[in-house]
């Protein structure tokens, strides 16, 4: 029997946006409960006989596998190369074949007994992905010590993978007493019932969250953390128990260079909440192996390069997880530590092309990485229920809600523009434009003194700054140019509505606005043509309370304001930070 | 509440026998301290000092034998005894103090009492000299003194604090004899080592002692971090062992199971103890440390899981440290290389020897027979056992054929080739040979066909 088919809304939207024609794409998905859920896709160009999709699989969460092919054409015929892809599908006996015709209509087929049979499919809503699926993040450090050669690294990592795959490890869930074992141990799960599933286990730890009717979305993914422990004792019941007493052998050989380093394994698996704990073991083994392969490829690549062939300039691999709303699933990348993002553009362009992403803004730089457990609120405005009253343009990408009293720093009454600038700065950081930390008030003041805008007594003072100072700082610290708009009165602001809409569409960065004694951050504009009304999405830095989303939204610290919000008689200056296209 | 220790009844006969026969005797109290109870397992008389015996013998004819008293005892001799005995103790068992049989009241007579204190202080220090031996009970400096008067056969037990200078406090201790032999909960595991790490041998060579010390340090760090599973399950640290045992009996009952033994396993979580950089070094050799440490510990059944876990960890480290010390003491030359290309160090292996209702251990060097264990058991534990009592199969001696094979390789230059080159060479040779065999076999198989075909071809042309 062929599986039921569901396709995530993310994938549907991405497929319909694809403009290339006569190209082939690979589909990625996972099986749960007799259903095949397609969650991702990539374009395949068949260059250099390389199977780029098999490489990409390593970047996807464990459990997500190749599940089929998509063609942008009108016929159900397949060339030999896409057929090869179908042969690589292991997750189901019936590989999937999607066709998107010229009218952008999606038709799904399963390959059943060598024939394509058309099948119906359901669209899987985005929210359901975050609600029904859990992400498991495994973190561990494996000590690596070997000869600084390609062979040495490959060999030692292969033996590590073998050891992990042979049941010599156990996984500890969330620092609890729940441990998972391999089948060979005969135990499976300890600390809870063998029949338990991961969703219930996680809920049992957070009973409060359940009652609150938590909203699930792409910004509040909280992975279940898992730790790996390695077996250090032998199985006494094994027939093959070798009990040779400890001994030491010393071998002398040709002089060579050796490297040793902590290998940080950081990997993600995506599982349905109903997954049994006993099934989780092999998934986590796969996740670990994917991570080790990524780490290996980064080491191998470096060793192959000239100059660091003997390992002297080798850099530690660093792992980053990305979850962009355009993609809708995690993508994990490993890059050498300390190599600037700018010099790795080629790889990123290839990835953008493979995932059919625009080449106008960075998406896989270090700063773009998903932020786990941020102490400050991220994108609070996304919690506001959508109300469609006109043309809306909002900030694109992540920013931090910076406001009074944060970081144990009392700036009540004078720091609003600084906070607004911090929000802008965080936006540039999280869009990958730079890797600097968000500057403190003092650092902002020091910057202004350095460029001669302010006297040295300004550092440590409680003096206000305005939008021009914000512009200077952005330029000096991260090389961002800004456009300044002056409005003589609050009502004059209304004439700039088209420019603001254009700003959010073109650049997407938050806007700082200063007027009278107040500074605010504008993160969105709505224009209703019928009534000729403009509303502004305001992020208010004057908030002094705790970073609680409910309070922030219900009390209107982040919310839509009508043009009455502005003082009719005050002057206003706006700082509109500009972006440059890059990857 | 007065501290109470429980002792097997044979210890009473043991003391009485010496109190009757000898002027004075000193020895060690060996046992286990747990929250729920303190158990003495064995009393072991400190052997006579050999050197004294031989030198006295030569003078014996001329001088009258000096009147030997307790005050003549050498502190270092007793301390040395304690050190050697500790090697034989499983984890969780310690030298708890000393026993003395004598006529004098050692607690009342200040001369005698200061001698006793001095012996205990020496012993405490000696046992502390190597932290990996776990000579003294961690975080405790109380030692027992058990005295039996040779005249009245009255037993007195007290505890004193050592290593605290003049503020030493003396407390009474109640010593109780158990009519029935103590039951123990046995826990077993095989801790597995398999580590290869690069070293720089060049010029100076490598000190075996130094290597072993490093292995010990890293093993200690790792084992301390380990999580212990009992029968594959993580237990509440405060739960008594017997609870686990009771539950287990109901769940699984395999015919092969020794009801008294529970299998445990240890898992290492890797934590970030490494510097966050790539370390880069030159090396021209490898050290491969491999094999097992068989661990069997015996716990009072009411002891907690936590206590048992600590005992298992102590046992592995103590056993490793004992082997290394014994191995290094027996070494003629500490320097490993550079003369030989391969060097093999095989420390003595562990065997178990029965003591009361539990087991202690001993170590046999390669080539030594189990009978060797009888000697140390007699001398250090003052126990008579037979060869059949020694459990020799918990560990096996290293397979020297493995070493021989490597040695042969080493004599040729092959070993200096990188493994990659060697394997490629093997690979190509293998394929060539396989091709050759294939061609020959095809030829033989189709011989008739080929001949007819060829003849046809030639006749046509």
TrEMBL record, chain A:
Residue ranges of every copy of the UFSP2 second domain listed in the record: 155-372
Record's GO cellular component terms: endoplasmic reticulum; nucleus
Domain UFSP2 N-terminal MPN-like residue range list: 1-129
Alphabetically ordered keywords of this record: Hydrolase, Protease, Thiol protease, Ubl conjugation pathway
Domain UFSP1/2/DUB catalytic: 391-575
UniProt cross-references to SUPFAM superfamilies, sorted A to Z: Cysteine proteinases
GO biological process: proteolysis
An MF annotation (GO) of this entry: deUFMylase activity
Record InterPro entries: Papain-like_cys_pep_sf, UFSP1/2_DUB_cat, UFSP2-like_2nd, UFSP2_MPN_N
Stored Pfam families: Peptidase_C78 (PF07910), UFSP2_MPN_insect (PF26560), UfSP2_N (PF20908)
Membership in a protein family: Belongs to the peptidase C78 family.
Family matches, as PANTHER family: UFM1-SPECIFIC PROTEASE 2
Purpose of the protein: Thiol protease which recognizes and hydrolyzes the peptide bond at the C-terminal Gly of UFM1, a ubiquitin-like modifier protein bound to a number of target proteins. Does not hydrolyze SUMO1 or ISG15 ubiquitin-like proteins.
Protein name: Probable Ufm1-specific protease 2
Record organism: Pieris macdunnoughi
UniProtKB/TrEMBL annotation, chain B:
GO biological process, one term: intracellular protein localization
Protein name: Protein odr-4 homolog
Chief place where the protein resides: membrane
Listed Basic and acidic residues bias regions: 44-53
Positions of region (Disordered): 44-63
Pfam hit, one: ODR4-like
Organism this protein belongs to: Pieris macdunnoughi
Keyword Membrane carried by entry: yes
A Gene Ontology term for the protein's cellular component: membrane
TM annotation in the entry: 425-447
Family of the protein in this entry: Belongs to the ODR-4 family.
Keyword Membrane found: yes
Subcellular location: Membrane
Key words, A-Z: Membrane, Transmembrane, Transmembrane helix
InterPro entries: ODR-4-like
């Amino acid at each position: 029997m062929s599986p039921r088919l569901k396709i995530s809304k993310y994938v549907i939207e991405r497929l319909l946006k694809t403009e290339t024609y006569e190209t082939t794409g690979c589909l990625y998905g996972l099986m749960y409960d007799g259903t095949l859920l397609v969650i991702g896709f990539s374009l395949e160009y068949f260059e250099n006989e390389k199977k780029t999709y098999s490489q990409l699989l390593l970047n996807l969460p464990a459990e997500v596998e190749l599940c089929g092919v998509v063609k942008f054409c009108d016929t159900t015929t397949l060339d030999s190369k896409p057929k090869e892809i179908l042969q690589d599908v292991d997750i189901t006996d019936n590989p999937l074949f999607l066709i998107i015709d010229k009218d952008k209509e999606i038709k799904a087929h399963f390959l059943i007994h060598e024939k394509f049979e058309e099948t119906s499919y359901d669209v899987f809503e985005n929210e359901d992905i975050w609600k029904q699926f859990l992400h498991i993040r495994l973190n561990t450090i494996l000590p690596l010590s070997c000869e600084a050669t390609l062979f040495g690294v490959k060999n030692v990592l292969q033996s590590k993978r073998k050891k992990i795959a042979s049941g010599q490890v156990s996984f500890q869930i969330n620092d609890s007493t729940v441990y998972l074992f391999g089948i060979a141990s005969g135990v499976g799960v300890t600390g809870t019932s063998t029949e338990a599933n991961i969703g219930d286990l996680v809920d049992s730890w957070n009973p409060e969250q359940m009652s609150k009717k938590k909203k699930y979305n792409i910004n509040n993914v909280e992975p279940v953390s898992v730790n790996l422990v390695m077996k250090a004792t032998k199985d006494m019941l094994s027939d093959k128990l070798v009990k040779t007493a400890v001994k030491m052998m010393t071998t002398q050989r040709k002089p060579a260079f050796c490297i040793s380093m902590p290998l940080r394994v950081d990997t993600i698996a995506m599982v349905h909440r109903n997954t049994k704990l006993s099934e989780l073991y092999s998934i986590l083994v796969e996740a670990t192996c994917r991570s080790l392969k990524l780490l290996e490829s980064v080491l191998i690549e470096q060793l192959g390069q000239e100059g660091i062939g003997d390992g002297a300039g080798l850099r530690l691999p660093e792992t980053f997880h990305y979850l962009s709303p355009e993609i809708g699933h995690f993508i994990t990348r490993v890059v050498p530590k300390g190599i600037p993002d700018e010099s790795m553009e080629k790889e990123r362009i290839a990835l953008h092309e493979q995932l059919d992403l625009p080449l106008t803004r960075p998406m896989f730089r270090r700063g773009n990485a998903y932020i786990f457990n941020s102490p400050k609120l991220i994108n609070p405005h996304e919690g506001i229920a959508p109300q469609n009253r006109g043309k809306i343009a909002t900030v694109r990408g992540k920013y931090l809600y910076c406001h009074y009293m944060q970081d144990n720093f009392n700036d009540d009454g004078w720091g609003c523009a600084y906070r607004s600038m911090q929000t802008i700065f965080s936006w540039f950081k999280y869009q990958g434009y730079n890797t600097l930390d968000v500057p403190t008030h003092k650092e902002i003041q020091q910057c202004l003194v350095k460029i001669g805008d302010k006297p040295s007594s300004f550092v440590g003072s409680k003096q206000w700054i305005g939008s021009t100072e914000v512009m200077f700082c952005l330029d000096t610290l991260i090389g961002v140019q800004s456009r300044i708009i002056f409005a003589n009165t609050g009502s004059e602001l209304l004439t700039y509505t088209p420019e603001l809409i254009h700003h959010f569409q073109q650049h997407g960065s938050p806007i700082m606005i200063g007027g009278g004694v107040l500074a605010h951050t504008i993160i969105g504009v709505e224009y209703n043509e019928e009534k000729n009304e403009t509303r502004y999405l305001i992020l208010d830095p004057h908030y002094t309370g705790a970073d609680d989303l409910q309070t922030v939204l219900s009390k209107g610290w982040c919310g839509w304001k009508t043009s009455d919000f502005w003082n009719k008689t005050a002057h206003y200056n706006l700082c509109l930070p500009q972006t440059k296209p890059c990857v | 509440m007065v501290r109470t220790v429980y002792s097997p009844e044979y210890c009473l006969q043991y003391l009485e026998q010496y109190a009757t026969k000898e002027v004075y005797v000193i020895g060690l109290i060996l046992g286990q301290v747990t929250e729920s109870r303190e158990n003495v397992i064995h009393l072991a008389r400190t052997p006579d000092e050999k050197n004294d015996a031989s030198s006295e013998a030569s003078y014996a004819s001329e001088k009258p034998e000096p009147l030997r008293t307790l005050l003549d005892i050498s502190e270092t001799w007793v301390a040395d005894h304690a050190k050697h005995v500790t090697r034989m103790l499983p984890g969780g068992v310690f030298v708890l103090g000393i026993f003395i049989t004598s006529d004098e009241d050692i607690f009342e007579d200040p001369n005698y009492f200061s001698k006793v204190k001095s012996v205990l202080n020496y012993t405490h220090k000696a046992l502390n000299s190597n932290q990996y031996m776990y000579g003294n009970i961690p975080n405790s400096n109380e030692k027992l003194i058990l005295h039996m008067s040779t005249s009245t056969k009255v037993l007195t037990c007290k505890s004193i604090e050592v290593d605290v200078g003049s503020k030493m406090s003396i407390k009474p201790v109640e010593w109780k004899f158990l009519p029935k032999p103590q039951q123990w909960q046995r826990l077993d595991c095989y801790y597995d080592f398999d580590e290869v790490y690069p070293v720089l041998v060049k010029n100076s060579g490598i000190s075996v002692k130094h290597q072993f010390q490093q292995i010990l340090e890293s093993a200690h760090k790792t084992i301390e971090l380990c999580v212990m599973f009992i029968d594959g399950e993580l237990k509440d640290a405060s739960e008594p062992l017997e609870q686990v045992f009771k539950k287990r009996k109901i769940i699984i009952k395999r015919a092969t199971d020794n009801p008294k033994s529970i299998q445990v396993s240890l898992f290492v979580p890797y934590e970030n103890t490494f510097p966050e950089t790539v370390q880069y070094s030159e090396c021209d050799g490898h050290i491969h440390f491999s094999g097992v440490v068989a661990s069997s510990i015996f716990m009072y059944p009411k002891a907690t899981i936590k206590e048992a876990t600590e005992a298992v960890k102590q046992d592995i480290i103590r056993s490793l440290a004992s082997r290394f010390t014994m191995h290094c003491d027996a070494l003629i030359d500490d320097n490993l290389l550079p003369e030989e290309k391969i060097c093999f160090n095989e420390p003595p292996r562990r065997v178990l020897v029965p003591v009361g209702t539990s087991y202690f251990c001993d170590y046999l060097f390669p080539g030594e027979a189990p009978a060797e264990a009888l000697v140390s058991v007699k001398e250090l534990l003052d126990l008579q056992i037979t060869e059949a009592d020694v459990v020799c199969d918990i560990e096996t001696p290293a397979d020297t054929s493995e070493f021989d094979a490597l040695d042969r390789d080493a004599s040729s230059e092959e070993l200096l080739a990188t493994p990659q080159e060697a394997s490629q060479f093997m690979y190509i040779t293998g394929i060539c040979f396989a091709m050759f065999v294939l061609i020959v076999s095809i030829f033989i198989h189709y011989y008739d066909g080929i001949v007819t075909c060829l003849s046809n071809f030639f006749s046509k042309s």
